[in-house]
Design a protein that fits this description.
Elements lengths: L13 E3 L10 H11 L3 E4 L2 E3 L2 E3 L2 E3 L3 H8 L5 E4 L1 H6 L11 E5 L4 E5 L2 E7 L8 H10 L1 H4 L3 H14 L4 H11 L2 H15 L1
Parallel strand pairs: 7-9
Antiparallel strand pairs: 1-3, 2-3, 4-5, 6-7, 8-9
Helix pairs in contact: 4-7, 6-8, 7-8
Length: 193
Amino acid sequence: MPARTQLPLDPHRVYRTRDFAAWTTNPSRTAKRLVEEGTLEQLAQGLFVCPKQSRFGRVPPDAREIMRAFLYDAPFVLTGSEQWNALRLGSTSVFPMQLVYNTKRSGEFTFGGLRFFLRRVAFPERPTPEWFAVDLLEHRDMAGVSLDRLRTNLALALAAGRLAAGRLQETARLYGTKRTQEIAAEAAAMTTA
């Protein structure tokens, strides 16, 4: 087996146990040895991160990188308070876990102190701001924003050109409930009135 210095591990990358099969016939033993040496940190059973150092200490792994390794390159999209707050629709909440829509897994998971709530639902390959707005409408109770405030701010965003009315209504039709479709239509009507 290659010595510690010969392993081509990328800092800040998350590895699965099976990724070590390229270097050894016993990936589990290799992963265990690398954890004992301090080269890797275990995030969960079968999931490891090669820590990255900054001048302030170890940098926590990126949520996108964790999901890439955990879902083994299956499509996914990260959503939640960070994306909702960026829309400037009145949501200012901080959700204690990251929402992840994917095609493989459902449930709550914790990796290296970061919490994820995975759901198997339909999502676009490349989410647009309009899709995140529909997602916010679907999860307004999690975002801590009232429906009236959200409806008003959505109409203002449409009027200001930050969101496209046609795309919002189409996205609501594809990914939203009937109620979300009605709210999107009302907001679009408020901008034309």
